[in-house]
Amino acid sequence: MINSNKPRILFTTRLKKERMAALQSSGFSVESVPFITFEYVIPAMWISQLPDQTDAWIFTSKKAVKAIKPAINDLKIPEHIFAVGSKTAEMLEELNLEVTIPDEYNVVALAEKMKELELKNVTHFCGNLKAGDLNKLLGENVSLTSVEVYRTKLAPHTLNISNYDGIVFMSPSAVESFSERNEVNGTAKVFCIGPTTEAAATEAGFENCITPEYSTLDDLTESIQNYFN
Question: CA dist 42 to 37, 47, 67, 152, Å?
């Protein structure tokens, strides 16, 4: 361990009480300070943006699934539905939808998986800070419609970072918000949920970030435990 006391971990997003309790029972002092907030767009505001025909839906976050849930019975379900991440897929399956996920939980692997099919028109349910390279990854032969169903807002705070042994980022937007008013000191270790978040953290000047092989909260938690134990 870094010190004889409990490692102090800062999550820069809202953490569920059960997850926080599990980490605390594992010997960590955990604090959750959200650096981003979310608001959902009501279906009446986006449903008219959906194309008449689409070969596939894409979901790159659980929040997008939650946003479409109230309108699911009013939507025409396409033949293919893709999700990045097992938890996102599970939420879709709870809506009785059949879902395909890539072996690696990122948009690059997702695009490669989709290229195995002859898709012409696809719809991405996303937030206002969606990944900008998905269109390029899918190729010029695929028409991508991005439908904004939730919005992310930055909520920066100024904290005494020396109070923490580890800083956890769950999204590039959390990195951006955190970096507006804070810098990571030399003793705090940075943990990232996935490669896109790690890239944002590296660009912000955070070095030697730890990122799990799979972009799930369970794997991220395991990485934190392995580092400090």
Answer: 17, 9, 8, 15
